[in-house]
Amino acid sequence: MEVFNWIKSTIDIPSEDEVTSVADSQGEVLYRLIKENGLKRTLEVGFAYGKSGAYIMSASQNHHVAIDPYQERFQNIGVRNIERLGLGEKLELHRDFSHVVLPQLLNEQRSFDFIFIDGDHRFDGIFVDFFYADRLLDMGGFIVFHDTWMRSTCLVESFVKKNRKDFKNIRVEDENLGVFQRVAWDTRDWIHFKEFYTMKSYTKFQIMSDLIGQKEEQN
Question: Which end of the chain is more exposed for a tag (fewer CB within 10 A), N or C?
Answer without folding.
Answer: C
